[in-house]
Please model this.
Amino acid sequence: MLDVAVARARILEKLSHCGPETVSLASACGRVLAQPLTARLSNPPVSVSSMDGYAARTEDAKQGATLTVIGEAPAGHPTPLTLKAGQCIRLFTGSQIPAGADTVLIQENIERTGTLATLQAAGRKGQFIRTQGQDFTAGQPLLPAGKVLSARDIGLAAAAGHVWLPVARKPRIGVLATGDELILPGDPAKPDSIVNSGALMVTAYLNSVGAEATMLPIARDNMASLSGAIAYAAHLDLLITIGGASVGTYDLVRDALKPHGLALDFWKIAMRPGKPLMSGHLGTTPMIGLPGNPVAAMVCSLVFVAPAVQTLMGLPVPTELCTEPAILGADVKENDKRQDFLRCTLSPQPNGLLPLATPFASQDSAQLNILAQSDALLLRAPFAPAQNTGAPCQIIRLP
Ligand SMILES: Nc1nc2c(c(=O)[nH]1)N[C@H]1C(S)=C(S)[C@@H](COP(=O)(O)OP(=O)(O)OC[C@H]3O[C@@H](n4cnc5c(N)ncnc54)[C@H](O)[C@@H]3O)O[C@H]1N2
Ligand code: MOO
Model:
């Protein structure tokens, strides 16, 4: 059985980038920028006032001086007038600074009588003026390729004159559940029917990490049904199967995919839950076969499929799993040869102490209720010795 880190590396090293697409600004939030973004405009495009008040010349802006108001320049309506000695122009926040002016006097410090403005305070050169390009100038690099775009980045791109953005295409993923016992939520149920929770959970999760994942029709446990379902795999960037991965007579995924060009890279890894994980290619389409037990399918999605989505979008994925330190909240037994991912709760501790990670007593990989109540996965390395409450440990927080 393959080591978890080796299996992860082998899956990721065979994936390539899906390439870019162009989307409108508002829909680019959360997407991965595919090319560096450069400003097309300067911000502000001209020097503007940052306050409501009067534009003046610094040499005239003495306390007690009285200036003649020669015009008004609201934002969006620049004046053609040029200030001369002893003059000022009424303006507002965002107004373009008129020619000849080099200071702004806020209106609270002006006593206005008709066309005369008397200064209660002197003006400093440049005060309350946002100079042209103070934020950024046209041609300036703003965002690097590979950045996951935030709403703030969208605001920046809009201010910089962009309407469309090049982003990494969302990887198209088909999630194919297999099993005679499976039904969709709401389908008429036989006494032994099992709802296809696995595919719903995995599809929802992969979409939340940036994929365009869709559930394919359920394939039944026979070669004809499985072969038929494979037709839906065309045009996918990644095929995920769920179930039929183990050693039972009706675990047919490998055999059904072989005549369709399945090149299996590996099957079975030293992981609990997740032992029967398989990976390979169906023709040129990468495929990952998840175990049927839904907890195993979800944990494997977290450890292998989400990083695959990131890789397909061109995002770097650290070689090591991203873990955090915690403190054991219960005694744990020595581990066998499989790396364990124990479902656990996390209790915050006072005074900056690490959280307590307490594994659930039952770790059955069919128990969705326990998975839903868990805060994290507690990692136990292969052959880790027994450890007592209070020992340091590593966790992965659950999404
Ligand atoms: N003799 C052995 N038996 C099993 C082994 C083994 O090594 N030797 N491995 C066990 C492990 S570990 C796992 S995990 C499971 C995985 O088996 P499969 O991938 O073949 O999955 P199925 O047999 O199809 O289903 C297992 C279980 O999960 C339910 N299931 C399946 N698909 C879904 C779904 N989409 N949504 C919800 N539930 C699903 C299914 O009804 C079964 O109860 O094999 C062990 N056996
Ligand atoms: O992957 Mo299985 O869930 O270890 O039971």
Q: What stands out?
A: The chain has a mean pLDDT of 96. The chain has seven helices and 26 strands. The chain has four domains: 4-17+170-312, 20-43+135-168, 48-130, 324-397. Residues 177, 179, 181-182, 194, 196-199, 242-248, 251, 273, 275-276, 291-294, 296, 365-366 surround LQZAQKY5 (ligand 1) (CB under 6 Å).
